[in-house]
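Mods, move this if it's the wrong board.
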Amino acid sequence: FILISVGIALPKMGSPDEPRYILIRPGCYDADKFTLQDIMKVATMFTDVMMIHDDNYVIAGQIGVMDFSVITLKHFIQFNNPTFIKKWTMYQQDATPIRQKGSHYVKMPQFALTVFNIFKSFMNEKNQSRVSDLFSAF
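Not the wrong board. Structure tokens:
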């Protein structure tokens, strides 16, 4: 059994009305062994578990912090299907009952901007306004 999770919920914040922070490190899996679809399945299961066991996550929402410090070009090559990217984006914003309060992207390499912009183009206006581009390590 190999754990292929790339995200973890951070400890609870000070008050119950603050959103849960989720740290996501998309480069933490072996891109030669696992597909993007495998990773998304695990992410979906993670979301299901959080919705069942964490009231704060459901009520106050979440803020995703994506750390790209260990990502490689191999990981981004897996994003070669715009249809899958659109389906994943639609699932996240329209089909999952999660209050997405914000998204932060840190240490994103220059080659990742194309994929990032594809994801962002499929987001609705509300979610686009909640994206914070923290490109700190060019």
